[in-house]
Amino acid sequence: MIKKKLNINEVKKYLQRKGLIIRKNKKISPPNNGWEVISKITISSVGIMLFFFMMPSVIHFKNERILFSKEFKNNSKSTFKKTFENKELSKLKKLDEDVIEKYLFEDVFEFNDLPNDAVRLSASTIEQLFKDTNYSLDDVRKKKLVKPVSLSLLPAEIKMIENTKKRKEFFIQIILPLVIEENNSIRSDRKKLFKILNKSNNTKLEKIWLEKKFKQYGVAKSDLSTLKIRMDEIPVSMAIAQAAKETGWGTSRFALEGNALFGQWTWSGEGIKPARAKDSSSHKIMKFNILQASVKAYQRNLNTHSSYKDFRRARAQLRDEGKKLDSIILSYHLDKYAETGKEYVRILQQIIRQNKLIDFDDAKLLPKSIDLESLI
Q1: Which domains does the chain have, with CATH numbers?
Q2: Which residues fall within 8 angstroms of residue 182, CB to CB, at 6 or more apart?
Q3: Is the pTM of this model over 0.70?
Q4: Residue among 339, 309, 282, 288 nearest 105 (CA)
Q5: What pLDDT is recorded for position 92?
Q6: Mean pLDDT, to the nearest integer, of 261-288?
């Protein structure tokens, strides 16, 4: 059989009869100008270089935004949830109860190591000082601003002020700046702690600072969750109410002789023996050189002692819910502060309500001026 050689035109006609159309591809002609190719390559290269150059800045900006949004966010609510669901709950509770007492009050008693040059001003001098600086509780309630009048000692004549209302207001005026100052110090430390917690890497100085705070707050095994819960403020209204209750609005012997505003007990070191204490009792009331040291010791006590762990948990819960630190709610957890238990709590709440102390919870301390320091 002789094979017939196919012609390309015949093939095309055959395929067209079958419904297939063959089109001739157009040849892509190269650009007339070689510079066009070079310019396109250059633009593409520059674009790629800019992309990789800008990426680190974009990532850094994104991280900064994330850090800013989380910087002072308290995540202890999720910590609580994990804690309560954890099978090793008892171990975690033990962490909060473990307190390394050796270092708790080191910074408090640094005040006692300083030269004791505190001057006890008379009640009349202090009253005049309050007038000269326009410092009144009515003004604080309206403007929420407190004059930074920091006194070291209570006046001996405070117990001679017969007008009860006047004596109470006088006592609050003295104690209020001291409590806010300590809260400011804790708030500053707390902000620093949250900055550190939100960083992936910490500097050597930050690590040294953390170790110091673990000691100050008696935290065992460098547990950050416990430190976060302990390092927090005490409501101003609660602190004032407790100081008023423990000192009889500044008239007690412990307050006048030892600047002890909160009746804290001690079994070692300097202290004042209670007059009604049994001979077999070895406890004393802690003694301080200045009032500020007493406030610091009181806050450290509530923030570290195992008797107040429920107070600290309730406070953290309020933080997680975005609520203010309510002294009425939190005072329910202070039944172990005194032997009278629930009766002590009832009296505290009565003092807070009757004297409208909650008005001072959101008050701010004005910066101290040179002129004011010269008056004190």
Answers
A1: 76-375 (1.10.530.10)
A2: 234, 292, 295, 296, 299
A3: yes
A4: 288
A5: 42
A6: 72
